[in-house]
Write a structure and sequence with these properties.
Radius of gyration: 19 Å
Distance between the termini: 45 Å
Shape: globular
Number of domains: 2
Largest sheet: 5 strands, mixed
Oligomer: single chain
Number of helices: 5
Structural class: alpha+beta
Helix content: 10-25%
Order of helices and strands: HHEEEHEEHEEEHEEEEEEEE
Number of strands: 16
């Protein structure tokens, strides 16, 4: 049975008020991701918080949810890399529920997928003071399946590592177990850590607008990037990602080169006809395409 074995530390973290979470984020995650517009998440962090609607009588009947980071895989000119979505899951077992999304490739963005094969699963997550322990449900994932390269095995592992570290709010090492005993994941070492995000994450990621969002007037677009001279261009294209560019601009991120930094831009769509568009964020490409072209992240939007 899928269950999360979270200690008092995780339970307390998920129940902290927003002010305390903001303070915690200053010493936690290092990638500087902004808050999604429709979720309660500490600014500049992966940190989830528990949210509920206004309670009814009796209050216990109102289900709780929490917003978690989930890491998927998408194509880039430099090969497959990690993209993140913030997702809402049941608050009782957020890490296991987040991993269910990751391993199933259950992303909102159709450009994202997963490297995990269909068989196998993670059964538990225990977030401790110095280590995150992730339990396998069976032996299916202890060796790499036929056709999975070592590079794919490593990136699949990073999907899991970045997801549980984001929920823990610390870059803790991750131990893989099976029935309480040390085990390998896809034939890799039984204890793994995060690779540098500049090596495994897409160098631009859109947080807002979310895939399928409806926008009007002026909205705030944000995300993270590591782009030349911190410049993150964006475009709105009519219809799909290959459509005509009808509006463009750029954001200046807080930094570049060593990791991903937050970017934000006000986008005025009041002059566009109502309909379906695609919001596109890119890395700046001073090579003019000689380096393989920019990395991109696209979100389908509807302008009212």
């Amino acid at each position: 049975m899928m269950e999360i074995m979270s200690r008092t530390r995780l339970a307390a973290l998920l129940s902290l008020p927003a002010l305390a979470l903001a303070t915690l984020s200053a010493c936690g995650d290092d990638d500087g991701d902004p808050t999604p517009a429709d979720a309660t998440v500490s600014e500049a962090t992966d940190e989830p918080t528990t949210t509920t609607d206004e309670p009814s009588e009796p209050a216990s009947e109102e289900p709780e949810t929490t917003t978690v980071p989930a890491y998927f895989v998408g194509d880039t000119p430099q090969g497959p890399r990690l993209y993140r979505e913030f997702r809402e899951v049941g608050a009782g077992d957020p890490a296991v529920e987040a991993l269910k999304l990751v391993t199933a490739g259950d992303a909102l963005d159709p450009d994202y997928s997963t490297l995990y094969p269909g068989d196998g699963s993670f059964a538990s997550v225990d977030i401790g003071e110095d280590m995150i322990t992730v339990g396998l449900a069976d032996r299916s994932w202890t060796v790499a399946p036929d056709g999975m390269s070592q590079a794919e095995a490593r990136l699949a592992t990073q999907q899991m590592v970045y997801t549980v570290q984001g929920i823990a709010q610390e870059r803790l090492p991750v131990s893989i177990t099976l029935d309480g005993q040390p085990a390998d994941l896809f034939g890799l070492a039984g204890e793994v850590s995060n690779d540098p995000e500049i090596d495994v994450r897409a160098l631009v990621n859109v947080t807002t607008p979310a895939e399928g969002a409806t926008v009007s007037g002026t909205f705030t677009a944000d995300g993270v990037s590591s782009s030349f001279e911190a410049t993150t261009p964006w475009e709105i294209r009519k219809g799909g990602a290959d459509g005509e560019v009808v509006k463009k601009g750029f954001a200046t991120a807080e930094g570049w080169m060593d990791k991903l930094y937050p970017w934000q831009s006000e986008v005025d769509v009041s002059g566009l006809a109502p309909g379906d568009y695609t919001f596109v964020a890119l890395t700046d490409d001073p090579s003019g395409g000689e380096g393989g072209g920019p990395m991109v992240d696209t979100k389908s939007i509807t302008v009212q």
